[in-house]
Amino acid sequence: MNAPNPRAATTGMCARTALLTIEGLTIEARTGTGWSEIVHGVDLTLRRGEILGLIGESGAGKSTIGLAAMGHARDGCRISGGAIRFDGIELRTASEATRRALRGRRIAYVAQSAAASFNPAHRLIDQYAEAPVLHGVMRRAEAERDAAELYRRMRLPNPGEIGFRYPHQVSGGQLQRAMTAMAMACRPDLIIFDEPTTALDVTTQIEVLSAIRDIVRRFDTAAIYITHDLAVVAQMADRIKVLLKGREVEEAPTRRMLAAPREAYTKSLWAVRSFVRAPRPAPAPRATPVISVERVSAAYGRTPVLEDVSFDIHRGQTVAVVGESGSGKSTTARVITGLLPPSAGAVRLDGEVLAPRHGARPRQALRRVQMIYQSADTALNPKQRIREILGWPVQLYCGLKGKAREARVRALLEMIELDPDRYIDRLPGELSGGQKQRIGIARALAAEPDFIICDEVTSALDQLVAEGILRLLDRLQRELDLAYMFITHDIATVRAIADEVVVMQAGRVVEKGPKDAVFTPPHDPYTALLLASVPEMDPGWLTRVLAARDRAQP
Amino acid sequence: MTASILPLSAARGLRSAPFTARFGMAVIALYVAVALCAPLIAPYGETEIVDAEFMPWSAEYLLGTDNLGRDMLSRIIYGARNTVGIAVATTVLAFLAGAALGILAALRGGWVDQLLSRLVDVLMAIPSLIFKLLLLTIFGTSVLSVVLIIALVDSTRVFRLARAVSMNIVVMDYIEAARLRGDGTWRLITREILPNAAAPLAAEFGLRFCFVFLAISALSFLGLGIQPPTADWGSMVRDNASLISFGDITPLIPATAIALLTIGVNFVVDWMLHRASGLKD
Question: What region holds the ABC transporter domain (chain A) (predicted)?
């Protein structure tokens, strides 16, 4: 092969000195009886001012390697081999005092969930000032002035005042930016970003991304950017390293990696977004919809959350409901399932009005409307075996017992492509994330429903696994003529599977119609913003979008 | 296949148990054996007067005789049966009531929760020993009322724990799924919630057993617990306490029996909690 070694190419390209060198890093995790290796000899070089993207599925070792770059191993893990040199200091053999002097001062870390990482009992400014004051970089008063300056650069509202709030008084996207500002407090040489935008809405993500990129460039900080989202990493990183199960697959500068991935695994990651379902014929104009949401309003206590929401879902069709968190997508699902009685309006099932509360609905109505949850971890009882998880709804709804029930459970497992003999006696904890989600689907199918609500069913899964789930749902829809309501904030998923799209914002439907109509201009302004905020694989995308926004608002 | 694995993993769990837990389990096993086989190993009957009062230790009466001339060793052996048996019954009762109502309160919420919780608050606001003494003087001191009254007072603590644990479980999606499926309250409690709340409740069972056990002994010592002539460790300490002034340690033996079981149970509970929390080392 004539392809040049990417590492040789980049060393030639950039003459700057290496800031962080990791060689042959191995990390072990404790198992029941001993230690097993989870990172198998990874090399990594990072120069000053450079951003390296680490991507891979869950379990690839991205976060573990990111933490190891600070000389740290999580509880239950240990760094068992290799060298980690930060600016000439060997972190593995350095004393804890040496490492502590580096952390926060020269190496900083931004966690995935800022909401969970800030101490809720202290104001943002106290947490900001802690590291610089402790390391003797600046005094408290200077730190407060500096915080306001960095908050302004991170484009936080009221930069002079926001630091004096407590974490719960600030939104998720703002917290994530405040945490990035906090990481910059001592002007470190290296920041490790561990999925900093994964939990955010697309419209918020774009702001956090541009703020991070801005500040990292301004202070010439090197960064390791960990994510599983290829489009995001394409915007941020100079180089990308792909990891699989604790091993490096390949590494190359961003543009080359996107244009011409060498390894089969990388190509498969890139190809995920290619799944598009064949379009379904439109329903007959007079057909009665399976589910009809009619002018529904709802409130939590005195706070209105839904206002005049109407849409229909026809047999065999998929309606995607999109919008940011807080837009009322999940609340609509709660009204349909009867968990939250609407304050006005009604839900019809096959033309018949459903009782507002699920407790007042007949069992047959409950059977026909099923739900699949976002997190299969909390949706399956961890103490029940698959036999019972699937067997009970079969028994309850279809009255099958003994051998007939067992046969039906096995048939369900086959429908979701899991071998009954291997899986029927397992507990949910003994399954992978994708398998758990399949069991969630089978539990919904056990009721032989007409309509299934899929609440962000793929957002907690790796892309390859999510693709498998989408294909499965598609096949089941064709075979069983199911109607789906697909709640999601991922526009790529909507493009792949939806027949119709309902766009929601702040409890209202802002636009609805067939997918092609909604996704073709002219858009409602909010739909346009939503569509424009979805990251694309092109590395120049973020720059272009920001430039376009600046032009729009001079 | 599962059947052959289960005893194996239990045996492995036992082997990995620390010394304290093994000690605790040995103590519990010993007490259970003594309680079950009391008539076989006791040299004399429970209430049989065998000789003069306060006889010293001898080959005939290994631990001497008590204030009425009954054999001390026999009474200690029968005491295991009475004191431990009543304590187990009381704890089981407290758990059945407390756990069921606690889970129900968490599951239903709203006024059911308010009513039960405030009621429990009121019961917990009264110092428990004084409350038990008061109720015993009102209802009399039969074994049944001792069991019921201690169970009632202690079930409030179980209620609190069961409710707190269940609050974290009822917000899970699988409970929502079960509700949407139309599952009844009984099934929700027994099949969906209880299996997930079992570990902390089991640990609390051990601790609660110690408290109940001590409460029975304390009440007996005060004269309101298990009544004579039934052999009971608490009242045995009281009846023979005067011997201590003569340098005889015999009354300390039932007291030690109480202390030993309490410590043994606590060792086992510590170990179970440690395992349930998933902590290593």
Answer: 20-270, 291-531
